[in-house]
Design goal:
With about 150 residues, the protein is an alpha+beta fold. The chain has 4 helices and 6 strands.
Amino acid sequence: MAGLFFEDFAVGQTFEHGLRRTITEADNTLFSVMTMNPQPLHLDAEFAAGTEFGQRLVNSLFTLGLMIGLTVADTTLGTTIANLGMSEVRFPKPVFHGDTLRAVTRVLSIRASKSRPEAGLVEFEHVAINQRGETVASCKRMALMKRREAPA
């Protein structure tokens, strides 16, 4: 399914994304190793067992990427020109191997680009929720989106 164009978004619009993903130990290990992050909280079961969490934590940057990835098919697939930035990134609860995440997106603002008539800016708020209904991540994301047609 193709993503939405700038004109398809409205402030306050909410997407309850149907795509979900269970995070595996392999996901966490591979992502941490690929990104050169040797944090023992992600990789060392014995170390992590001695922490307040009692087990390894999923790498927060994997959680961030997954949260946004879960939203793409319903919102921006093939219609994003570029991500311009992310702000207010939060991880209020830990994510563990075996957790299943889903995402909710809300459109916070929209405006036509002043410098690119073929594009507009859409600010999204993304939230990731685990199988227990707990919010585990959130962020605001500004995306430069294609317009159907440039204004005359």
